[in-house]
Specification:
By secondary structure, this protein is mainly alpha-helical. The protein has 9 helices and 2 strands. The two termini are 45 Å apart.
Length: 299
């Protein structure tokens, strides 16, 4: 009888150990799937932020009288239309959670508001256009920040610094938005060849805010080549605004030249965000080995 009892106990132990192993593996698979989907959604949101910012800047130039942006504006709108559907799967997945970061209803409302902006844009003033674009961009940034805080920080835990995660999902995207607003407003100023008192105050605020965010981002994580390049481009943009864009008349920089210079700075920050995303992917590829719970191995 003793050998029967021992055999049964051994089988129970093997069953429990096997179940625990499969449970741990399932948790890793689920975590991997969730991390990959979250990062893919963040990339789509970042791409949309960039496209909307460019559409806002082009709209400012067009509404200020520079017709050379007309064709580029239509092409940018088509890019936005093609990207929005990429968020539907994530919205559907998030809608099943207790505290969703993004829902299908919110996405549908966002798409409706975008359609309204496109339809009414020809009758907007520059200020109205900037306000409506910025409202939509703010929604994208809030979704992105929520995913970073509620999903990425939970999934990556101690495998990546919180500062790096917040650079990716919050701080650097906010920096692109400060620069994007400065691009839109500055392009309008350049097209009109004069800066009003209101525009001057706003540009000075945006430059100061961008420099503060840049400083915070530099202090939050390791700086790579992309970060160095972005910092130089942002500083150049700030210098151009302060030295060439703030006078009430006689501004000589062309709208297209300023738009391209500002775009270079913003693209640099987006490249920096991409580097942060690569680091998050690398951090997410480390897992705990089944046979030795304290040992780390690459997936």
């Amino acid at each position: 009888m003793n050998w029967i009892v021992c055999t049964m106990l051994a089988l129970v132990i093997i069953f429990l150990a096997t179940s625990a192993m499969f449970y741990r593996r399932k948790r890793w698979v689920d975590a991997d799937r969730s991390l990959n989907m979250t990062l893919a959604t963040c990339r789509s949101l970042l791409a949309l932020v960039g496209h909307f910012q460019q559409h806002r800047g082009m709209s400012s130039a067009l509404l200020s009288g520079d017709r050379s942006f007309g064709g580029r504006l239509d092409g940018k709108a088509r890019e936005i239309d093609g990207l929005i559907p990429s968020l539907r799967e994530a919205a559907r997945e998030e809608s099943s959670r207790v505290h969703p970061c993004l829902t299908l209803n919110e996405l549908s409302l966002f798409q409706y508001n975008w359609g309204q902006l496109r339809e009414k844009l020809p009758g907007f003033s520059v200020e109205q256009s900037i306000a409506q674009h910025s409202f939509l961009i703010d929604q994208l940034l809030r979704w992105l920040a929520a995913l970073g805080e509620a999903r990425l920080e939970l999934l990556l835990g101690e495998r990546c610094s919180r500062g790096q995660m917040r650079n990716y999902a919050s701080r650097l995207p906010l920096l692109t938005e400060c620069l994007g607003q400065a691009r839109a407003l500055g392009t309008s100023v350049a097209a009109r060849r004069g800066c009003s008192a209101v525009a001057r105050v706003r540009l000075m605020f945006l430059v100061a805010r961008a420099e503060a965010l840049l400083k915070q981002a530099n202090e939050a994580g390791a700086r790579g080549a992309g970060a160095e390049k972005a910092a130089i481009a942002v500083q150049q943009m700030a210098r151009v605004i302060r030295t060439r864009m703030l006078q009430s008349s006689g501004i000589s920089i062309a709208a297209g030249e300023y738009f391209d210079m500002a775009t270079n700075a913003i693209d640099g920050v987006f490249a920096w965000i991409g580097e942060c995303g690569d680091e998050l992917i690398l951090a997410g590829s480390w897992k705990i080995d089944v046979g030795a719970p304290t040992q780390l191995q690459r997936a």
